[in-house]
Amino acid sequence: MRNTTRYPVHGANPLWQMYKTVSFWKVMKSFAVIQLARYTPFLSWKNWLYRTFLRMEVGEHTAIALMVMMDTMFPELIKIGRNSVIGYNTTILAHEYLVDEYRLGEVRIGDNVLIGANTTILPGVTIGDGAIVAAGTVVHKDVAPGAFVGGNPMQVIREGTASKETE
């Protein structure tokens, strides 16, 4: 089970009521910063934008590729360790709106993690240090440190093994 907090709603679905849960101006600011960062070719500028304007934690030397889509409503719930690589067109979500509730969950990506292109990371998951996530994976549960995972549904391809780089 993912580590999310559930918020039941009444009446119309939560997405229809989203500006009761998050400020319109916060979403607009986040969207503008994220769009700028998605196309910025300079990794240091991109990380600065995320840290400064979205209050995300992004570790030193982390490389976030072109077109990565961060959560526009709750980007401050995304924590990425140092020296990690987030592949092209990956989506990182810290919220999900369902029919009768919405859920929020912190996303933690460790140090020295490789996330392949076109991956979707759902709210409330932790990806341990040194893990590898294959391209196109839907990360719907925690990934152990050093593990290699892939697919939809996500499968463990190789169990995690501790190494000196990730300790």
From TrEMBL:
- InterPro entries for this protein: Hexapep, Hexapep_transf_CS, Trans_hexapeptide_repeat, Trimer_LpxA-like_sf
Query: Which GO molecular function terms does the record list?
Result: acyltransferase activity
Please provide the record's keywords in A-Z order.
Acyltransferase, Repeat, Transferase
Source species, domain of life = Bacteria
Q: Pfam families given for it? A: Hexapep_2
> Protein name, please?
Acyltransferase
Provide the species name. Brevibacillus panacihumi
- Which taxonomic lineage is given here? Bacteria, Bacillati, Bacillota, Bacilli, Bacillales
